Amino acid sequence: xxxxxxxxxxxxxxxxxKPANLHFQYGTxxxxxxxxxxxxxxxxxxxxxxxxxxxxxGKTIGVMVTASHNPEPDNGVKLVDPRGEMxxxxxEVHATTLANAPTTEAFIEALSTLVKNAKIDLSKPARVVYxxxxxxxxxxxxxxxxxxxxxxxxxxxxxxxxTTPVLHYLVKAINTKGTKDEYGxxxxxxxxxxxxxxxxxxxAGKVSPPPLIVDCANGVGARAAAKLSDYLxxxxxxxxxxxxxxxxxxxxxxxxxxxxxTSQKIPPSLVSILKPGQRACSLDGDADRxxxxxxxxxxxxxMLDGDKIxxxxxxxxxxxxxxxxxxxxIQVGVVQTAYANGASTKYLADRLPVTCVSTGVKHLHHAAxxxxxxxxxxxxxxxxxxxxxETTEKLNTHQPSTPAQSTALGHLVNLTRLIxxxxxxxxxxxxxxxxxxxxxxxxxxxxxxxYHDLPNRLVKVVVPDRNIFKTEDAERRLISPPxxxxxxxxxxxxxxxxxxxxxxxxxxxxxxxxxxxTSRAQADDLAYRVAGLVYDEAGGDTSRRPA
Length: 547
Ligand code: G16
What we know:
The protein is an alpha/beta fold. The protein has four domains: 6-161, 3-Layer(aba) Sandwich (Alpha-D-Glucose-1,6-Bisphosphate, Chain A, domain 3), CATH 3.40.120.10; 189-301, Alpha-D-Glucose-1,6-Bisphosphate, Chain A, domain 3 (3-Layer(aba) Sandwich); 306-448, Alpha-D-Glucose-1,6-Bisphosphate, Chain A, domain 3 (3-Layer(aba) Sandwich); 456-544, TATA-Binding Protein (2-Layer Sandwich).
């Protein structure tokens, strides 16, 4: 039985000491905090990734170094399991334990316990593929990660600077290579080729849509979108903006999907560029979220968020499934979170089964796997569509009875190739939206009119300790601090169609407050009143109480 390589672990771990007085938490999307504090976390995640691979018989594990929508000084890291999905939940606990061991010896002891309890055969090979986004702190953090690989003997493949969804794709492509489930060529080019050729097949014979403006958040999506644009050629013209990936401080700053969704405004850099009626979309810092928007004839801003994407896409897929003669056999369902606009939930629930789960792609993904075709989108634009293995098999083998059925079936098969089924992917989702818009001859206006959003407001509250906030019922109700939920309920009752909830963020050191009501003024009022309650309850500094 092989043993842990103690000498290498000690020597390298000593180069990456854990900062005293800091606690790290594997949150909504891995570890995420100020990049300058993450050296030891990266080293330890490198070791953990090796152990995860050994545990899974040498299958390739993914490691992505990114803090996605967070401000530029933040960074983060998350692990990707062999099918390209998020790390199994029980291992998140191991990750947190290892990251918080105060010394090298404590770290090694925690490793030994993990190896014993999880019955990891250390003689197995360890394989990892890793990548980073464009943050300035990335290269140094990747070097710490590589020390972790070295310490445990990982055979590591560097996918360099790329988007989070490409890294997820690579993990699945590598692990399925040479099998009957081969997912695609295991390279960024393979990904671009797969997406663009499916898109071209889907829009063949249709009138090309007008060019699409893409706000790249000054992040890694700018590079990927530029490459994709070459592959797409004339099938879809992309006009890229906010592509300054090397300008200090530019990342996610007054641009990108999180800015648009949270502030409900057009990025200032696009104000003089976007013409009324023209389609535009924003990616986030690692290109796994997508928000569309347009200006109407009066120059008013309209946002088409993850909820609107879910409504558009789910309806289209249902239509194709029925068109292919499979309406009785394939059930399409939608997964949302508490942030979904009440109007979107009503629209969808009148037509399809809808499930509500906690925030975080990992929760949505698992819930979507329970449907034959699961459409999941967070309101913030993070989401994708999953086709179960049985459904994929059915689509590939079903014998259509009419030419119309054959066409619909062909479209569904091409959709399974266009959609990145490993994780939410802004570029793949963008192509999916474009396909539906082309088929429906919709502009943003028709798409927007599927249903009318209830006015809503999302507020961040900075409190001394967000961990005192605990939730239940898919994060829709607070169970701690005691009594606060009752106060929120009392407030909400005073607003027509009022709804509000409070939860601690898993990616930022804040508590989030969401509120909706029948008018913009009421939604804002409710959000700020609930934020005030949260602030008072958490014992915040009254000078920073939300106004
Ligand atoms: C990550 C997760 C998303 C989640 C978001 C915000 O997104 O992948 O599922 O909605 O964080 O989470 P929280 O409200 O807990 O901070 P991203 O795009 O930042 O990776």
